[in-house]
Amino acid sequence: MTLILKHSDLLTRDTVNALLDAKGGPHVSIYMPAHREWSAVHHDPIRLKNLLREARDKLVDTGMRPPDATEFLSEACDLVERDNFWQYQSDGLVLFISAEEFRYYRLPLNVEDIVILADRYYLKPLFELFADDGRFYVLSLSEGSVALYQCSRHSIREVELADTSLSLEESARFDDVERSVNLHAGLSSARATGKANAAVFHGTGGGYGSVHQTQLQNFLNELENAVQKALAQETAPLVLVGNAKMRGAYLLQNRYRNVAEESVNVDPAHMSREEMHALSYECVKPVFARMREDATRAFEQFSGPGSMHLASDIESVLSAAYQHRVSKLFLPRGRYVWGRFDPLSGSVQVHHEMRRGDLELLDLAAAYTLLGNGEVYAVSDDEMPEEASVAAVLRY
């Protein structure tokens, strides 16, 4: 059975788990930049078509018959001709294809053209969304509309909130209909019994203000249920954007444990999405700085010859990550290590260039670390502890 996850699906750690669990036959991962602007969108289908041709050639090179390779990629190829698909793009697009499933996600990330054929999906470009020093969420709150956004340091993308009204006005409209139904039902009952005065509407205080307050509480409770559903298993900070009244009312309903201490005290209707992202990032930047400092301090605490709590070679890091022993992992941005890893023996082969059947080993180490609820930090070369190509703090 083929599974298609549409663009509205949110990339979470559960997504990483599902992608890591994918087994059976070859796995194709395709990344490409995309465009939000309609004037540039017409180039994107051509780009995908060329990348799919490259993927087909790679499949044929492994010994797959050309017709079978074409069939393997058929559902992805269908996207090329779907005009409505290209009208709603983000900054990047990723496709994951195997014999059992086809997934695609629109990414709030700038990515390069990549086609990887391997025994598992290639996830490294996604880790900016999961790095513990740059991933956060924003909840914009106003009576006119609400929205949830997934953010990195450089991007912001709206997350679909299922089963909820998008504005207090819309929610109140349903409340008004329900009250009207109850009122008419009461009048009918009263006429039937001859007690006309029995049909009265009972609010929480009888006045417009109390009715409005009840509507607001009901609306925010509905919103909180949707937020909880969207952020299940998440731990990243959540920044609230809105005036004091809306933020205070929402906090009374909130059950998410990682709401940021700092918030943006501006009605979202009065700023652009880019301005909201910039102001929200300022709220969480000190949090990320502290997290990075704590991680670096933890590495320095155990540094020294023969330390049992540190690993700074790919062989030791991969084995520890596979065993869920990595607490904090430091990866250099823009670096690749190709090779093979045998989880049973712990042996690692490193190659200077990618060979058939190779995996990107830093990608694999990060994936195993996330599966073990460890923290991943993507840093520049000069920020790497001890100038290593990979470094980890171990739990034991």
Order of helical and strand elements: HEHHHHHEEEEEEHHEHHEHEEEEHEE
CATH homology superfamily of the largest domain: eRF1 domain 2
| SS-based class | alpha+beta
Straight-line N-to-C gap: 41 Å
> What's the mean pLDDT score?
81
Rg from alpha-carbon coordinates: 26 Å
Strands of the largest sheet, in order across it?
Answer: 3-2-1-4
The helix tally amounts to: 12
CATH secondary-structure class of the largest domain: Alpha Beta
Count of the domains: 3
Brief write-up:
By secondary structure, this protein is an alpha+beta fold. It contains 12 helices and 15 strands.
How would you describe this protein?
It is a single chain. The strands form 4 sheets. This protein has a 4-stranded antiparallel β-sheet with strand order 3-2-1-4, with helices on one face. Strands 7-6-5-8 form a 4-stranded mixed β-sheet, with helices on both faces. It is built from 12 helices and 15 strands. A hairpin with a 4-residue loop joins β2 and β3 (102-107). α7 (168-193) packs across α8 (208-230). It has 396 residues and is α+β, with helices and mostly antiparallel strands. It folds into 3 domains: 13-129, eRF1 domain 1 (Translation, Eukaryotic Peptide Chain Release Factor Subunit 1, Chain A); 136-168 and 205-291, Nucleotidyltransferase, domain 5; 303-394, 2-Layer Sandwich (60s Ribosomal Protein L30, Chain: A). The model is unreliable at 1-8 and 174-208 (pLDDT under 50).
